[in-house]
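Workshop exercise sheet. Pairs work together: one partner reads the sequence aloud, the other fills in the structure field after running the prediction. Swap roles for the next sheet.
Pair: D.N. / O.F.
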Amino acid sequence: MTKPISKLIFVDDDKIQHMINRKNILRINPEIDLLFFENPYEALGWLKDNDTDLLILDVNMPEMQGWDFLDELNKMNKTTKVKMLTSSMDPMDVVKSQVYPQVSGFLVKPLSNEVLTEILGI
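Structure field:
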């Protein structure tokens, strides 16, 4: 069993998903430290000076694609564990993710309680 997640960051432009995920995650683990960013640039700014156990990163965002975000993380020498979040599984995304060693998998929206429980290590 993996170590439970105590700090989780979401970078996703979908406010509704933030609301749903916050409610469901806090129901599973009310002690978790959760941060949600709609803007990937704000998330990168936060990550410059802070760390997290897991980053859940949307593949497709209007301001910056998830892949560009990963490139920026690499420039900062951050080795944060990342799960990519997508609305539809594109096989090319899986291939592309293999370039980024910090990417440990893909999650499909909306996240079920079972998936959230697994992510949180509970």
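Discussion prompt: Residues 7-119 form a domain with the Rossmann fold fold (CATH 3.40.50.2300). What would you look at next?
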